[in-house]
Structure formats: structure tokens, C-alpha cells
Amino acid sequence: MSTFDPKSILPSLPEDPGVYRYFDEAGTIIYIGKAKNLKNRVSSYFTNTKGKDNKTRRLVSQIRKLEFTIVHSEFDALLLENTLIKQFQPKYNILLRDDKTYPFICLTRERFPKLVTERRINHAMGTFFGPYANPKLMNALLEMLHQLYPLRTCALNLKESQIEAGKYKVCLEYHIGNCKGPCEGLEQEARYMEYIDQVSQILKGNYQKAKTFFIGQMQDASTRLAFEQAQEWKEKWQLLENFQAKSTVVNPSIHDVDVFSMVSDESLAYINFMKVINGTILQSQTWEVKKKLEEDEAELLTMLIWEKRDQFQSKAKEIITNIPMSIEFEGAKNTLPSQGDKRKLLDMSLKNVLYFRKEKADRKAAEESGGDRKMRVMIKLKNDLRLNDLPKHIECFDNSNLQGTNPVSAMVCFKNSLPSKKDYRTFTPKTVEGPDDFATMYEVITRRYTRLLEEEAELPDLIIVDGGKGQLSSACDALKAIGLYGQIPIIGIAKRLEEIYFPEDSLPLYIDKKSESLKLIQQLRDEAHRFGITAHRNKRSKNFIVSQLETMDGIGKLTAAKLLKAFGTVAQLKEASEEDLAKVLGKMKALQFKKQLDNL
């Protein structure tokens, strides 16, 4: 193939919308792009080459042929570009085809339809809903529908002639109340189809018709004094209400919107898609795309939006994004909300994207560490506690006292999952009298982090409090008082059931007992307890010795403390010479003290 000469070709290019294709020496398509103005867009590759990144310069150096197709509009160019990229998969284009096949829910087209899951669409089989990027959400929805309606699950051919001939017998599902026995003609087809209509509406995200039906049945049963039936209908209505309440994230008046958010760096783009109907998220997916060239963010996002809307069969008339789309789709307006419920949806989408990116980065760091256990445990703990950052620096607090005497609080520090003993600290409460764990925790947390702030020292990535909701609440109050609340993640661990408590959440988290992250939390808690008990014993022993020494003539509390500081124990005092004692007490007092000490 001859050398490509852009100077001879560019002047003759049309200024219309279209799609262009670059070929290499072997005649292979290496890049496909769209343009609002073909002449301007194609010319931009061959002018100001110094301002291009390395990948774009490499692409240009390999171009040996150019072909283009003129279309009516930029939107048509997008559609053609999308189709051609999927067909030829050029090496310099991002890969649009997702290798995954997501499951669908199919409402079968047969007498007495049933719900089945499929990964391939076959419209002859029935009506398809989905696909569901989150199979757990799909299974929860199916489970709820089977609780609400007596839908059959068998594969029997329920033709009227087959049923009248008595070819089938009811199965266990009938006997346990999950099915009304259409196989023996025990279920009216009209009634069953009424259920199917409501199921179809729920799968579309419309709950009102089903709720109205349940309320009507409940009221009818109540009027007939059939209170047990009324209770059953009430429970179904409540089940649907609770499911919708858990699914609804914003105002239900937001009827049908697609939400897309994207963040990107030099080599990767991260995108989240949420399908929202009546304030409920019916679909959600986050994925990454490897950038091949220096793609424009708006164009890249627009292309990906088209791809996902096609894959998820979305016809939403509003598309919410954090970056303006490069073109507007026919029949769909692009919105960039700055406040209100739509902004909440966009923030939620962005939160998913940022979490996904951080998780990917953490996983990559773990792989690059060669499977290092310490890194693996920190990543697991970060994910279990839903932290924003790796907990490389953790501090754990424990209070220790015996019947209110000699109270001591201990703080142990782990860095990179290992004890950092030089950073361990003990605290003797100064403002608390008696055994008050809550007040002690408040004082200790205040003292510790006030000092770190004053010294401009490194703050921890996670604080752990040994105790339940009470101790955690006191620690949170202390952080609020010094302006650190919300800046440092903090949890409490209750001993009995190893329950993890979060601030302002009454429900605990239970981490798998075999989890490495729980074992790390337990190790911190146990180490804080050990260190606190040791400090408590030392303090108690010191106080006991001081009390013993105070019983001797001429020895007060201050002098006893000086002796203890100089010699450590009673045994070492007894072994000390008069000369050594005189250095602390003076010659005459040392002689008198030595005689009393020998009798102790």
C-alpha cells in the first residue's frame, strides 16, 4: 500500500457529519471515528503533531489509507461509528462490546405464564425484563414476586385439553400454598392473568397497581369478617411496601431516567450507569474502559451511554450526567443537575464510580505487592468497614480498672497490620472520679487527638474503641468537641458477640468469624487489653509499694515516690547500700530508713 499523503487528500474532504476509517500497511482498519465536520476532524490528526500524545502520534505514523462515509447528522455518525467498532474492533478504539452476558427475567408466553431467568433474548419465548447487572437484585425481586403471587414453577404444558384429560397431578408447591394448582384446573385463568399483569407492572418498576389490588382485597376480606384472609393480604401489601421503600432512593415522582457518571485518568475511564424508575434503581452497573487514544471525555461518555442504553433497552427521555454529552439523543434530553433529588441520584452514581476506582487501585496494589498478607488484610478490612482509604495506621483504646481503683486507659497502635510498640500510650484519667468508662473514654480521646493536632502529627486512618455503643458514643462526642468527627473513621467492638458498631447506627455489623479483617480487629482489641492490664498492674504495684513505704517514720508520699523512682522495687531497696540511699534521703535519714527497711 502506498504512502499516505494527507496534504493531497485533506483539502478535498467534505465539511459534513460522517464516520472516517484509518487503514494500516496491511489494509487493516486501525481506527474508526465520528465527526460533526469530517474535514476539520480528520485534519486535526495531521496538524500540530507535537501537541499530540505518544499513542496518537503512533496511530498517525501507521495510517496508509483513509475512507469516510457521509451521514445526515452527528447522531447518525454516532450510530454508524458504534456499529463499525463492534464489527471490526480496531486496535486503537476502545472495546465497546461487553463480554459478559447478563441475566434477564422472562415472563413466558404460554397458558398460565411463569417467571424464568435467561441469558439470551428470544422474543418468541415471552416478554423479557432486564438485563440485570446485579443478579442478587434480580433474585431478591423474583423471591418477592413468588411470595406475593401463587405463580407456577413447573414446566408442564397446561393446554386446556391436557388438563381436562386429567394428565397432571398437583405437586408439593400446591400443598405448601405456593401454587393454586392450575394443572388440575383448580386455578381460574382470568384470576391468574390478573396476577401476571401486576407482576409485569412491578418488573417495569410500577408498584401502584399491585398495592391498590392488595389494599382492595384486604378491605373486602375485612368487610366479610374474614380477618385471617385480611391479614394475609395486609402482609403481602406490607411486603411490597417494604421492598419498594428499600429500593426507592429518591422522590418517586422521578419516573424514568438514566443516570451516567464518569471519572477518568490518563489511561482509564470509570463509568456508572443507573436505571431509575419511580425513584427506584432497577439497574446499576459500574465498569472501566481502557482508553486507547487521548479521547475527549464528552465524546467517550456519549458513546458509552449509547452502548449501555442499547444493551439495557432503555428508552428513558432524560439522561442525567456529570459531564455534558457531546450530542443529544433523539427524544432524550441531557441534564446536569446542581441540586435537588436528581443531584442526589448523580452524587450516588459518582460515589459508586469513585468507590469502584479506589477498589481497583487497592486490588492492583495488593497484586503488585506479590500477595503480601499485610496488604491483603488491610484491603479486606477497608472493604468490610467501607472505608475510603486503606487503614495503614490504626489506634485502639481500652479502659482498665479494678473496682474503680488505679484506673488506666491504654492505646495501642498498628501500622501496616503490625504492632508499632513505640507508639503505644497509657493515660491516667485526670478529670474522672470512680469507675466511669464513658467519661474516661471521652477524656482519653480528647487528650490523645488534641495533642496530635497541636504537634501536627499524623492522624490514624481508623480508631477502634473497645466497647459497645456507649463507649463509641463518648469517643464520637470527644471527636466532635475537637473538630475531628467525620474526618477519622471510628468503630466500637463489643466483646460478647464481636459486634462492630458504627457512629449513629443502632444496628451492628457482623463480620465473618473466619475473616482476616475481624482477626486483625480482635488482635488490636486484645493487645490494647493486654497493654492496659499490664499498665494497671504496674500502677497498682507502685501504689502498694508507696503505701508500704509511707508507714515508715520520716517517709512521706513524695519521698516514697522518689525512692521508688530511683530503685524500682522493695527488693532493690533492701539490697541498696546506705551510700546509695543517702543520695536520695541524706546520710542520717538513710541510716534510720535502712534499719526500718530490714524489718519490713
TrEMBL record:
It is found in: Cytoplasm. GO terms for biological process: nucleotide-excision repair; SOS response. Gene3D superfamilies: 5' to 3' exonuclease, C-terminal subdomain, GIY-YIG endonuclease, UvrC, RNAse H endonuclease domain. GO terms for molecular function: DNA binding; excinuclease ABC activity. InterPro entries: GIY-YIG_endonuc (IPR000305), GIY-YIG_endonuc_sf (IPR035901), GIY-YIG_UvrC_Cho (IPR047296), RuvA_2-like (IPR010994), UVR_dom_sf (IPR036876), UvrABC_protein_C (IPR050066), UvrC (IPR004791), UvrC_RNase_H_dom (IPR001162). The keyword Cell wall biogenesis/degradation does not apply. Keywords: Cytoplasm, DNA damage, DNA excision, DNA repair, Excision nuclease, SOS response. It comes from the Bacteria. GO terms for cellular component: cytoplasm; excinuclease repair complex. Interacts with UvrB in an incision complex. PANTHER family: UVRABC SYSTEM PROTEIN C (PTHR30562:SF1), UVRC/OXIDOREDUCTASE (PTHR30562). Belongs to the UvrC family. This is UvrABC system protein C. It comes from Aquirufa antheringensis. The gene is uvrC.
